[in-house]
């Protein structure tokens, strides 16, 4: 069975890069008609181990719980759109 692509942005409150990433995620999500999930790693610390998170923001593109692509730090709109489009 084919599973949809899932895009998650892990962030933490007060992170300057995360605040910069949020409007980029919104713009990319609207352009591709998808939802980019945003998960607070402070409230959901199990994700730190699960995805071996070292920095925020970290964006992962998944299919069937398999990480297809991963970005650490701020990802600009064009790069994010290009990465997600490969898997839609």
Q: Could you characterize the architecture of this molecule?
A:
The protein has 3 helices and 4 strands, in the order E-H-E-H-E-E-H. With 88 residues, it is of the alpha+beta class. It has one domain: Glutaredoxin. Strands 2-1-3-4 form a 4-stranded mixed β-sheet, with helices on one face. Helix 1 (16-32) links the parallel strand 1 and strand 2 (36-40). Helix 1 packs across helix 3 (77-85). The longest helix is centred in the N-terminal third of the chain and has 17 residues, at 16-32. The two termini are 15 Å apart. The model has no long low-confidence stretch (mean pLDDT 95).
Keywords for this entry:
3 helices; 4-stranded mixed beta sheet; globular; 88 residues; Glutaredoxin; 4 strands; alpha+beta
Instruction: Give the proportion of residues in helices.
Output: 25-40%
Counting DSSP E segments of at least 2 residues, the number of strands comes to 4
Question: CATH first level: which class?
Answer: Alpha Beta
The CATH homology group name: Glutaredoxin
Query: How does the overall form come out from the CA principal axes?
Result: globular
What is the arithmetic mean of pLDDT?
95
Strand percent estimate? 25-35%
C-alpha termini separation: 15 Å
Q: Strand arrangement, largest sheet?
A: 2-1-3-4
